[in-house]
Specification:
Number of helices: 8
Strand content: under 5%
Order of helices and strands: HHHHHHHH
Shape: elongated
CATH class of the largest domain: Mainly Alpha
Largest sheet: none
Distance between the termini: 76 Å
Helix content: over 70%
Length: 125
């Protein structure tokens, strides 16, 4: 027992309450501002302050989505807005941060339930 007590690491003090909300807010802002980039969890955690694993847990607990899924939602929301304004699908895909039209189509259908082309034709009707 004496050996363990002498050489064991002491427990970290508990985190101040409320820091998680701030980290999630900073993370969401960063993802909104950098939606067209491929934001890594390491970059996001560096911006929002906690370590990667803690950020993922508190982000998902607060927002209901992982940071990656949240960024996908932001991109799809931007693409929808551009499509409603008449921006061509391929151009909207690039401007929203997708690698190409096929990437937009896969993610758009996953989130919205329609392809971008069908979404545009339904919006015009």
């Amino acid at each position: 027992m004496l050996l363990v007590g002498r050489h064991a690491l002491s427990a970290r003090p508990p985190r101040r309450p409320g820091r998680e909300r701030e980290a999630v807010r900073l993370g969401r802002e960063y993802l909104e501002e950098h939606a067209q980039e491929n934001v890594t969890l390491r970059a996001l955690a560096g911006h929002a302050r906690p370590n990667v694993f803690h950020l993922c847990r508190v982000f998902h607990g607060s927002v209901g989505l992982t940071p990656q899924a949240y960024q996908r939602q932001v991109r799809v929301r931007r693409a929808k807005s551009m499509l409603r304004q008449g921006v061509p699908i391929a151009r909207g895909a690039t401007l929203a941060g997708f690698s190409d039209q096929a990437h937009l189509t896969r993610q758009f259908k996953r989130v919205v339930g329609l392809t971008p082309g069908r979404y545009v034709s339904n919006a015009r009707s």
